[in-house]
User: What shape does this take?
Amino acid sequence: MFRILADRPRRAVLVSLLISAIGIPIQIVGGWEYPVVPPGMLILVAAGLAALLPMRWAPVISLVCGGFILVGFVVVGDVANMFGSQNALVTVGKWVQMIALAVGIAAAIGSLVKPPVQLAAAGR
Assistant: This one.
């Protein structure tokens, strides 16, 4: 697990998707309606933690989940709420969520494009 945390793109995926999840409680404090346990927050936390899995393709999970949240955000028309149609906390929460989500998706793509870290051969 420590080798995975040493991988900068994967660490960026983890941190950015967790920050994106924090955008949801900010919106809740601002009065935005969410279920008692927001599914988007659970998806973002799980997607961030998936970057810690030791498999080479693990960032694909983060990429798919992040893409799911992003497409949902656009389809339900939340883009309009990023430009002041709600109070300041809701607007800030939406911006935090989407900027961090975009960074997480880009980091997941970068992690998949980058060649995997090779362990040093024992005895060399």
Notes: The first helix runs from residue 2 to 6.
